[in-house]
Amino acid sequence: MGRRRKQKVQKRVRKTLPKVFTCPECGKVTITIEIHKDKKIAYLKCGNCKLEAKIEANYLSEPVDIYGDFLDKYYEEYA
Ligand SMILES: [Zn+2]
Description:
The protein has one helix at residues 63-78; strands spanning 20-22, 29-36, 41-46, 52-56. By secondary structure, the protein is of the alpha+beta class. The longest helix is centred in the C-terminal third of the chain and has 16 residues, at 63-78. It is globular, with a radius of gyration of 12 Å. 18% of the residues are buried. Zinc ion (ZN) binds at residues 23, 25-26, 28, 30, 46, 48-49, 51.
């Protein structure tokens, strides 16, 4: 595996971190993220098209980080 690309396209809004994200599959803002820091895992789920993913997490993981990892993985798999 190569190194992780750091790519921050989104603008960060400081006071409110987003809780829902855009689904790469259906294009709707319906991705919710559940982080289980004790299990070091995060689950992503689209409320619209039922796309699901499991992403490795750690103690510092924020939903936006998980989402970034998820997008990397998604585009690697489907590109
Ligand atoms: Zn979707």
